[in-house]
Amino acid sequence: MEPRTITLHDCDFSTYISEEEIIARINILAEQINQDYAEKAPLFLAVLNGSFMFAADLMKRVAIPCEISFIRLSSYQDMQTTGHVKEVLGLKEEVQNRHVVVLEDIVDTGHTVKALLDQLNERGPASVEVATLLMKPESLQHPLHVKYVAQSIPNDFVVGYGLDYNGHGRNLRDIYKIVS
Ligand code: 5GP
């Protein structure tokens, strides 16, 4: 890949993971999912906004009976507890007794995925696993099991392929990392 530098708002980013590499990783994930869920008619839950491109490219390669739905997580200050609580929005599908696969753009501290898994598990699914495009293992603050990881990366801020910096960069085909 030709090294390129782009500017989004006030920050410079340089090419990091090419679209070709991303698709090669997604092919491997899709193959694993096709085997693991062959008889399970999984329900994929893609977390908006960041996972939209990953979800689309993964789903084109999932060749088993399945459903996909899109959810969001709100973040609000809960007066009863100490911190921010993330609530699942837009989940219309029945999760009870379903095999659920959460599709995430990136797992960083793991707060988001932990909150999501806690809420999904309250609804009595048959199983819940996470498939993420990117993961930053050095940042993880929860003992999470993330079964499907397309690519692990160091603790750098990245954009592109669905991921944004203040709203910009989601449309980029490749993944870029911040120039420090
Ligand atoms: P966590 O709750 O795991 O700390 O963070 C997950 C969310 O933080 C992701 O869904 C994403 O929105 C945001 N995030 C974490 N790291 C990055 C990054 O390197 N780039 C971008 N664009 N978003 C990130």
Keywords summarizing the entry:
single chain; 180 residues; alpha/beta; Rossmann fold; 3 helices; binds guanosine-5'-monophosphate
Alpha carbon gyration radius: 17 Å
Bound molecules: guanosine-5'-monophosphate
Apparent shape: globular
H/E series? EEHEHEEEHEEEE
Poorly predicted runs: none
Helix content: 10-25%
Strand content: 25-35%
CATH fold naming: Rossmann fold
Give the termini distance in whole angstroms. Answer: 20 Å
In this structure, how is the largest beta sheet organized?
A: 6 strands, mixed
Mean pLDDT: 94
Determine the number of helices (DSSP H or I, runs of at least 4 residues): 3
- CATH architecture, by name, is 3-Layer(aba) Sandwich
Arrangement of strands in the largest sheet: 5-4-3-6-7-8
Strand segment count = 10
Structural class: alpha/beta
At the first level of CATH, what is the class? Alpha Beta
The total number of structural domains is: 1
Description:
This protein is α/β, with parallel strands linked by helices and 180 residues long. It has a single domain, classed as Rossmann fold (3-Layer(aba) Sandwich). The protein is 21% helix and 34% strand. It is built from three helices and ten strands. β4 and β5 form a beta hairpin. α1 crosses α2. The longest helix is centred in the N-terminal third of the chain and has 18 residues. It is globular and about 45 Å long. 30% of the residues are buried. The mean pLDDT is 94. The structure holds guanosine-5'-monophosphate. The site of guanosine-5'-monophosphate (5GP) has 15 residues, from β6, α3 and β9.
In short:
This protein is an alpha/beta fold and 180 residues long.
